[in-house]
């Protein structure tokens, strides 16, 4: 598992969450929606169809990310700040500026987490790891708001909370459920991208990811998802028996 010391264990709109489904150590009982707020029947189908139509127009996203994490073992709330760039279907670049400079890049095949101040990096082949593949599939179905695909892995509830739409996902997999109790995605009914994601786990922690200054379909540089590491960087290939190697690759 990838352990991100001092910075977020999960990142996103669905893109960010998907990347970290396999590295997230979460933890409070799931927040239940009251029955009187639940959206059901024909109204549910219409709302989901409307959201899906908006998602189809989104090919890339740039946003400022603020993440807050509470854990019973931490005296204070852990806060991180950074920027996110996402390109459909599965390219992510998340640069964390505080509390520690960290760059995460996913190019569709490989996930790289680079800590410049430490000259350290971790890489994971997304094609070789079961949970990694599940995360990418979740990313793809989530960005297109493919509820049929999401419902294969989650119990999906739609409800209104404080005049907003909330899509609440409860994992069906016992393995995932050991860590994650629920994922709730909050979205304004008129917006194409959610503004907050709340992940609640089984042992007492809660991670809130908030997106602001969102730009839909920005120009994405060709090398945005390329991360070249210098020869001084110690690279650990997670899951590879060969272990560590130098950078510049």
Would you write up a description of this structure?
- The chain has about 250 residues and is α+β, with helices and mostly antiparallel strands.
- The protein has a single domain (about 15-235), classed as outer membrane lipoprotein receptor (LolB), chain A (Clam).
- Helix content is about 20%, strand content about 35%.
- Strands 7-8-9-10-11-1-2-3-4-5-6-12-13 form a 13-stranded mixed beta sheet.
- The longest helix is centred in the first third of the chain and has 16 residues, at about 40-55.
- The radius of gyration is 18 Å and the shape is globular.
Number of domains: 1
Q: Got a strand count?
A: 13
User: What does the main sheet amount to?
Assistant: 13 strands, mixed
Q: Strand order within the widest sheet?
A: 7-8-9-10-11-1-2-3-4-5-6-12-13
Q: What is the overall pLDDT average? A: 77
Backbone structural class: alpha+beta
Just give the CATH class. Mainly Beta
Helix coverage percent of residues?
A: 10-25%
The general outline is globular
Ranges where pLDDT stays below 50 over 5 or more residues in a row are 1-32
- Tally of alpha and pi helices: 5
Order of secondary-structure elements: HHEEEEEEHHEEHEEEEE
* CATH architecture descriptor: Clam
Q: Kindly report how far apart the N and C termini lie.
A: 22 Å
Q: What's the CATH superfamily, by name?
A: Lipoprotein localisation LolA/LolB/LppX
Q: Strand share of the residues?
A: 35-45%
Report the radius of gyration as a whole number of Å.
Answer: 18 Å
CATH topology: outer membrane lipoprotein receptor (LolB), chain A
